[in-house]
Write a structure and sequence with these properties.
- There is one protein chain.
- The protein has 452 residues and is of the alpha/beta class.
- The chain folds into four domains: 4-136, 3-Layer(aba) Sandwich (Rossmann fold); 150-312, Rossmann fold (3-Layer(aba) Sandwich), CATH 3.40.50; 316-385, Helicase, Ruva Protein, domain 3; 398-449.
- The protein has 19 helices and 14 strands.
- The strands form four sheets. The chain has a five-stranded parallel β-sheet, sandwiched between helices. A five-stranded parallel β-sheet has the order 7-8-11-6-12.
- α17 packs across α19 (439-449) and α18 (428-435) crosses α19 (439-449).
- It is elongated and about 95 Å long.
């Protein structure tokens, strides 16, 4: 294991020898300097975790050294040596950015060693946090959204503009288009990035539990309520609450969501005392909320309240110029994960990808590439490695599909509806539950697509 590096600056040789002896039995590598200038010149090469510096030196004061270190290497922990217990100077050093101080004479060895070790731990903690922040940005930062198409570039530019404000955001688009990625990018570029990002899949919550899970409950409210519990709004306080599949919430919950958004207060189930909440709300759905409003399945006032800033993520079939870049990204990602060396992709693969409908969008493309890389035993990804589950099934005539989006959507709905009804033996109610559509909508689509 690599030793922690400590750089000591003092114009007295005794001090340097003291710290050398102090660290003799520790996993610490010491670098000693009588000259502050020499020490500062060596910092880029040594890369110390900790700098210990005397405050009173003829060439340069410890406070001047502190200013230079904090300006150029703010991650380094700095401990000031002050003479004869001069507390005023110690306090001044901490105000200027020093982590701690040590007083001369060096009487309490255990205390000095403890302060040094804590200073090193402080550096290591900051380093780990920096790595975590970089990893989060690599995964969810705006730079990780692979986009070359005009539509996606426009979305990215808008994300950059609105990330710093607190307006409610609605992200729409088909499943697998990357709505969650956009939501996390907004959060990680906002002033709430150091607070919690709480993601809730509304479609996974039973209707009878929605209110208690969103707003919390007090002890004894119902059987099993053994303790008072916070809801999602409180858990995300000061951060971002991401409600995925907002269209799946009940009308009863929608009324309470509207009130919580407008008043910035929630009331726990079983309580009458309101609780202040401060959240950035981002909602997403793969359903047409305007249609749901017309069908009286979604509140119009809530729709307008959450649709302050809207992003519609286009399906992959409408931004095929992104495909090569996405493929390259996923091949690199899974080659690294599986220990493969995929250096080339057969050109014929891209022709198949361009012709394919991509019903599962970017998520489906990622799964296809993951499987292909996992199964490949060469450094070239070939057509034999590629399996497209719906290839040739969804669209009989691809040329007609490419000509006009409305025609393509109608063809997809017709095929989907026929398959749905076949699965349900023609039972409209069963089909409506599976598709999560109003039975009247099913009837209307049958008349439109299946009745001649």
């Amino acid at each position: 294991m690599q030793k922690d590096k400590v750089l000591v600056i003092d114009d007295e040789r005794f001090s340097l020898e003291f710290f050398e002896a102090l660290f003799a039995d520790e996993d610490i590598e010491i670098f000693k300097f009588l000259s502050a200038t020499d020490a500062l010149n060596k910092i880029p090469d040594i890369k110390p975790s900790l700098v210990i510096c005397d405050h009173l030196m003829p060439e340069m004061s410890g406070f001047e050294v502190l200013d230079i270190v904090k300006k150029n290497w703010p991650e380094i922990t700095f401990i000031m040596i002050t003479g004869y217990g001069t507390i005023e100077r110690a306090v001044e050093a901490i105000k200027k950015g020093a982590y701690d101080y040590i007083t001369k004479p060096f009487d309490n060895i255990d205390d000095i060693l403890s302060r040094v070790q804590k200073g090193i731990e402080n550096y290591n903690l900051k380093s780990r946090i920096k790595i975590l922040e970089k990893n989060i940005n690599d995964i969810y930062g705006i730079s990780n959204i692979i986009a070359k198409s005009k539509k996606m570039i426009e979305i990215i530019n808008t994300v950059k503009k609105i990330a710093g404000i607190n307006s409610t955001v609605l992200i729409t688009g088909e499943s697998g288009t990357g709505k969650e990625l956009i939501a996390k990018a907004i959060h990680n570029m906002s002033n709430r990035k150091n607070q919690r990002f709480l993601e809730i899949n509304c479609s996974a919550i039973p209707e009878n539990l929605q209110e208690s899970l969103f707003f919390g409950y007090v002890k004894g409210t119902f059987t099993g309520a053994d303790t008072t519990k916070k809801g999602y709004f409180e858990e995300a306080n000061k951060g971002t609450l991401f409600l995925d599949e907002i269209g799946e919430t009940s009308l009863n919950l929608q009324a309470k969501l509207l009130r919580a958004i407008q008043e910035k207060k929630i009331t726990k189930v079983g309580s009458v005392e309101p609780v202040d909440v401060d959240i950035r709300l981002i909602c997403a759905t793969n359903r047409n909320l305007e249609e749901l409003v017309e069908q009286k399945l979604f509140r119009q006032d809530l729709y307008y309240r959450i649709n302050v800033i809207n992003f519609h993520i286009p399906p992959l079939r409408d931004r095929k110029e992104d495909i090569p870049y996405l493929v390259e990204f996923f091949v690199k990602k899974y080659s690294k994960e599986f220990g493969k060396q995929i250096a080339k992709i057969e050109p014929d693969i891209f022709k198949r990808f361009y012709d394919y409908f991509w019903p599962g969008n970017v998520r489906e493309l990622e799964n296809v590439i993951e499987r292909a890389v996992a199964l490949s035993d060469r450094d070239v990804l070939t057509n034999d490695n590629i399996i497209l589950q719906k290839e040739g099934e969804l669209i009989a005539d691809k040329k007609d599909f490419v000509k006009q989006y409305d025609k393509a959507r109608a063809e997809f709905e017709r095929i989907y509806l026929k398959s749905l009804l076949d699965t349900c033996d023609g039972n409209i109610l069963k089909a409506s539950k599976i598709a999560k559509l109003n039975p009247a909508t099913i009837h209307r689509k049958i008349s439109k697509y299946l009745k001649k």
